[in-house]
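Ligand-bound model needed. pyridoxal-5'-phosphate.
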Amino acid sequence: MAAVAVSHVYPLGSRLNEQGRLEVGGCDVVELAREFGTPAYVYAEDDMRARSRAYLEAFRARIERFEVIYASKAFPCTAVYRLFAEEGLSTDVASAGELHLALAGGFEPELIYMHGNNKTPADLDDALEAGVGHIVVDSFDEIDRLRGREARVLVRVTPGIKPSTHSYIQTGQEDSKFGFGLDDVPRAVAACAEAGLQLDGLHAHIGSQVFELEAFERLAEVLVDMGDWPLLNLGGGLGIAYTRDQRPPAIEEYVDALLRHAFEGVTVLCEPGRSLVGSAGVTIYTVGTVKRIPGVRTYVAVDGGMSDNLRPMLYGARYEAEIADRFGGGDQVTIAGMHCESGDILVRDALLDDPRPGDVLVTPATGAYGHAMANNYNALLRPPVIFCKDGDARVVVRRETYDDLTRRDV
Ligand code: PLP
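Prediction:
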């Protein structure tokens, strides 16, 4: 069989090989399943590198002073921090834990931005001791907590922009737990000065999985109109394709929209997460049972579920699935996880080719907020992370063991 290209939902460079099996980063995922077990998160390393370069090139072509900051909550893993540090990005962290990983991945502290709507005194101590570049202050209490410390900060603004995305991942609207509403910004600026903090600029993030370029353009407009600041951070949020009918804007179009407004004497910061890593990863599972309920539904159950991908349960996220060596099936089935919850459904309406126990099933576009939100529900072991490049696979996070489950017992 001739090698066939797969849809844009799969990592860049993915293809069906001569045996009709999916290859990611040049690695046959059926062989990966055999070698490393399932479930497993499989990433095409070159996909993440290509997208980070696309961001850098898009900015470089349009503006002199900019920084592309990896929003690491999407996939906080030492190896990926290392990869983006090598590519010349900065990073943000949303906790002292992510800070720990970013430093372990080799990020210069100066290139780290710390976020969080409720940073604890210990988080702030860790950040300042590590020498992070900037803390993005989110509340009057936090400004008070930083009083008298030597800190460079940005003020997080909720710009009153509400893009069309799930309400759980909208963050720019006025009714938000994050940041300062527009009316409060002057008071926040004054509070920073009064607390002796070095305020270098403003930050705003309107939400995630956003396809509307106008919303990003409006965000830039709002921030530019809020005074002269050395730094303006326009957040992240560019969406990706989870299913083949979705056509998100290209990185270049997104950057173009952000920069349509003139920025004079400003360093423009942008903070993508999902659009750097989401499409680079797939999850592989083994089918365990196929339950056919005539006239009702066929359940195909796999050896993972809400412990490795919480997004369908958390906000109804839709995914596709395929049998890794029989792409393009037409049997409508529901992919269920193995957890003790009826809501543990990964894909409600997948089209598979005659699924059978033992098949390797793949869900694409699981590179963001999958590993990040993995949990041990039902004491399942969290899956490994495998980076693939030019046909070589390396485990960058190993699978958990039963000993890991009892390691914290006292
Ligand atoms: N910046 C901030 C402050 C965020 O809260 C988030 C996501 O929640 C991001 C950036 C990254 O968003 P995305 O992964 O959609 O690009």
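Residues 224 and 262 are 8 Å apart (CA to CA).
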